[in-house]
Each structure stands twice: as C-alpha cells, then as structure tokens.
Design a protein that fits this description.
Helix content: over 70%
Protein name: DNA-binding transcriptional regulator, FadR family
CATH architecture of the largest domain: Up-down Bundle
Distance between the termini: 53 Å
CATH class of the largest domain: Mainly Alpha
Keywords: DNA-binding, Transcription, Transcription regulation
CATH superfamily of the largest domain: GntR ligand-binding domain-like
Number of domains: 2
InterPro entries: GntR_C, TF_FadR/GntR_C, Tscrpt_reg_HTH_GntR, WH-like_DNA-bd_sf, WH_DNA-bd_sf
GO molecular function: DNA binding; DNA-binding transcription factor activity
Order of helices and strands: HHHEEHHHHHHHHH
Structural class: mainly alpha
Number of strands: 2
Radius of gyration: 21 Å
Strand content: under 5%
CATH topology of the largest domain: Four Helix Bundle (Hemerythrin (Met), subunit A)
Shape: elongated
Largest sheet: 2 strands, antiparallel
C-alpha cells in the first residue's frame, strides 16, 4: 500500500469513527441498539468494509460499542464501559451534538469539579479574590453589547473557571479546561434560555455567597442552576 492510500484509509476511518460517535452520543442510537452491518455502513458512506471494521474495533476499544461475533454490533452502556478516549471524544463535540443523558453526565462532572472549588474558595477567599470576581462581572456587563454569543459564552466560562483558579486547586482548573469546547455550547444555550440579566445577577449572587463564606449556599446555587438548565432542555 502506498502512503497516499494509507492516508486515505486513515482519514476515512477517522470520519467513520467520528460519525458513529456523534450519532451514538446524540441519542440516535441508544445502549442495546443493534447497529447496521459493516456492509450497509460501508455502502452508505462510500468507504471500504475493512475501514468500517477497523473503525468499529476502535469504537469498541473506546467502550462505545460491543462486537458480538455472528450476532452483530451493539451500542454499549458506554457510561459504564467508556474510558478516557471516549471522554476526549465527548468534549471535542459541540454540546448541541450530545443527547440529554450525556449532557447530564457532563454537568454532573462540572458540579463535582466547580462545586469542590466553590467550597474551598469560600473557606480561603481573600478581599482581593472578591474584588477580582466583581471586576470580572462588571466587565461582562460593560462590554456585553459589543460581544457576540460565542464571545459572551467565553466570558462566562472564564468567570466560572476563575473559581477553580482562586480556590488554589490547580488540578480542578485543568479539568475545567478539558471541558472548554462543550461548555461554550452549554453557555450559549443557557444565555438564550435565561437571558443575560439573570445570568449576571447570578454571578453577583455567587460572589456574595463566597464573600460571606457560605460554602453550602454557593454549592447549592450551582446545583440548582444546573438542575434548572436541564429542566429547561426537556421542554
């Protein structure tokens, strides 16, 4: 096989894996569903059956599918069988490409990460930390009219990441960064659903609770915000 042939096969395999990952994580195919045969998928995408076979082997290694000889290929219970490679695939997709169960799982992870940081920051916060958070909120208010949806979502992501930074728990900041792309899609949806004034008032409320060292109140504010977001998505 010459290098160009090998590159084409690699590209086709990557496209196939991404397509099937997106379809499974969006909820088009659910755990337990039997997927179309390799032959059918190869014909649908106009690629070789060997490429599809190799792609399914990668999806199986990620924990997304289960290959049962002579029976077919089935969507796995990937929340139990998935690994770090699957997590990487999830965070590389847009939040709008994910099904509700995956969205909930990601937001549960965010609650665990940022919730821990909020509790820590409430106990260790300084006057400079409070001033920093209020200045960031004021800056969003002042320039919001000049920002597009993506830029505004970025500002809210940075504000909440700052909670992890100020908490002194640097590993939590790294986890927040891994969820950046998918979080931007969530923030765009959140601002559309709840509106900018409400979202800004919530930043003020977070800051107040941190200032008063109200760790339970700050955590519960985050938890209720996530629950409200999920309930709006169901409507």
């Amino acid at each position: 096989m010459n290098p160009s042939e090998k590159a084409t096969r690699t590209t086709n395999k990557a496209l196939f894996v991404k397509k099937m990952t997106r379809e499974i994580l969006s909820g088009k195919w659910r755990p337990g569903d039997k997927l179309p045969s390799e032959r059918e998928l190869a014909a649908e995408m106009g690629i070789g059956k060997t490429v599809v076979h190799s792609g399914f082997e990668q999806l199986a290694a990620m924990g997304l599918v289960t290959i049962r000889p002579k029976s077919g290929i089935f969507v796995a219970d990937y929340m139990k069988s998935g690994n770090i490679e699957l997590l990487n695939a999830i965070v590389q997709l847009s939040g709008n490409e994910l099904g509700r169960e995956v969205v909930k799982a990601i937001l549960d992870l965010r609650l665990a990460i940022e919730g821990m940081a909020l509790r820590a920051l409430c106990l260790c916060r300084t006057e400079e930390d409070i001033a920093r958070l209020r200045a960031m909120t004021d800056d969003i208010r002042k320039c919001s009219r000049d920002l597009g949806e993506v830029e505004l979502a970025e500002r809210f992501f940075i504000w909440h990441r700052e909670i992890c930074v100020l908490s002194g728990k640097s590993v939590l900041t790294l986890f927040m960064n891994t969820m950046h792309d998918v979080s931007i899609a969530f923030w765009i949806n959140y601002l559309r659903l709840f509106g900018l004034p409400f979202a800004l008032d919530l930043l003020d409320e977070f800051t107040d609770r941190i200032e008063f060292r109200d760790e339970e109140g700050a955590y519960n504010l985050l938890a209720s915000g996530i629950a409200d977001y999920l309930s709006r998505l169901e409507k």
